[in-house]
Amino acid sequence: MSATLDINLIHKYYGQSCVLEVAGRTYPIEDVFNPTDDEEYVNQAILKACKIHQSNEPGDILVFLTGPDEIDEAIVEVQRQLNDSAIVLPLHAKLHPNETKRIFERTPANKRKIIFSTNVAETSVTIDGVRHVIESGMVKEMMWDEKLKMQALKIGRITQSSAIQRRGRAGRTSPGKVNIF
């Protein structure tokens, strides 16, 4: 099961169950908190990605946003600011498999990948080379709309377990750093 689930809670639920722990391969992760206005998370993520790229710290960058529209906006702006000095890629469920495959290709020695992703990269995906995660703290998901009295696709804050999963993307293949908004 996922390393982020509460093993004691699951064990208690199943009673006399046996617990077998297998250590995962994780590296140290440094958390950097960047307080910002909820309305500005896309712009702040773009600025932080460009700043990390220009700092020449090693490693690829994974940025969590809420959907394809935000991702497309961010890609255009980052490419404009960085003048093709980085490989800027989208990652979301609506991509064609050939586009998704580019995420996992080896990064050329003189380049860096900057990947703008939805929560699809939150679990079960390890992208070699990612050392920096930029966490917007936001997600687009079905939520109850009290005014409409029905479920609606809305932008809201991520859960604590999502934050833990996203944070873990930075420490999968090497030490990493997470910038949290």
Structural description of this entry:
By secondary structure, this protein is an alpha/beta fold. The chain is built from 5 helices and 8 strands. A 6-stranded parallel beta sheet has the order 1-8-5-2-4-3, sandwiched between helices. A two-stranded antiparallel sheet has the order 6-7. 30% of the residues are buried.
Give the SSE map.
Blueprint (H helix, E strand, L loop, with lengths): L6 H8 L14 E5 L7 H15 L4 E5 L3 H15 L4 E5 L5 H5 L11 E5 L12 E6 L2 E8 L4 E8 L2 H8 L8 E5 L1
Parallel strand pairs: 1-8, 2-4, 2-5, 3-4, 5-8
Antiparallel strand pairs: 6-7
Fraction of residues in H or I helices: 25-40%
Secondary structure tally: strands: 8
Question: For the largest beta sheet, what order do the strands appear in spatially?
Answer: 1-8-5-2-4-3
Q: What is the number of helical segments per DSSP (H or I, 4+ residues)?
A: 5
Q: Radius of gyration over alpha carbons?
A: 18 Å
Structural class: alpha/beta
How would you describe the shape?
globular
- Helix and strand string, N-terminal first? HEHEHEHEEEEHE
**C-alpha termini separation:** 28 Å
Main sheet properties: 6 strands, parallel
Our estimate of the beta-strand percent is: 25-35%
